[in-house]
Specification:
alpha/beta; 40% helix; 9 helices; four-stranded parallel sheet
């Protein structure tokens, strides 16, 4: 294959990287599974199967409905979320996943700069619960570039798999840039890091890679 035929030449340089959180930067997906299993046990249901959790895809209403239906829990979405909330303190034991710090350190020191942001379906307080004891992680992300489902700008938008949260994260990046240095970052110049089907779909819907 000649240089001109190399598929990589179709992509512009990466100028921004936007990250999901749960199961990608930290091991909170394992903790969610433990919490779900405790709830299932209380209702005499078998442990959560991976095939059922994979169908959940997100923690919005649709995702919770899928999990409740797949496990045959006798709970409404509201009741299920109340049960999960009882275990929130468990998430203070979240740990970084292997390779995360080395990747973030590499990206943070890149020249020309690569701008980092977070776009997660978690809430702002719950993100703090999961990460406040991990300063080496949060140091890489400006609070202005961290977007969560309870953000005021998200209230009129759709959650993942829609691309809204990623496009809003990009707006936050662009609003913080010096207008005279490189211009605005475009969606096709963004690399999305995700671990779920809904998240990948959201990145693609936003026109990102």
């Amino acid at each position: 294959m000649s240089h001109d035929e190399n598929p990589s030449n179709m992509f512009p340089p990466t100028r921004a990287c936007i990250f999901d959180v749960d199961g990608l930067l930290i091991n909170s997906e394992d903790i969610y599974t433990d919490v779900y299993n405790k709830i299932l046990h209380c209702y005499g249901r078998p442990a959560l199967k991976w095939t059922t959790k994979a169908l959940q895809q997100s923690r919005g209403t649709i995702g919770d409905e899928r999990l409740i239906s797949g496990t045959k829990l006798p709970l409404t979405v509201k009741e299920f979320r109340a049960q999960v909330a009882l275990h929130h303190n468990t998430f203070t034991s979240s740990q970084l996943l292997p390779g995360v710090l080395s990747l973030l350190s590499h990206l943070s020191s890149a020249k020309p700069p690569i701008h980092l942001a977070v776009a997660s379906s978690t809430t702002t307080p719950f993100f703090a619960t999961k990460t406040s004891h991990l300063p080496t992680l949060t140091a890489h992300f400006s609070p202005l570039r961290c977007l969560f489902s309870d953000d005021a700008d998200m209230q009129s938008k759709k959650g993942k798999p829609a691309g809204d949260i990623y496009l809003l994260a990009l707006e936050r990046i662009n609003s913080s840039l010096d207008a005279g240095k490189g211009g605005k970052v475009m969606p096709e110049e963004c690399l999305v890091f995700e671990d779920s089907i809904a998240g990948v779909a959201a990145g693609r819907a936003a026109g990102m890679r």
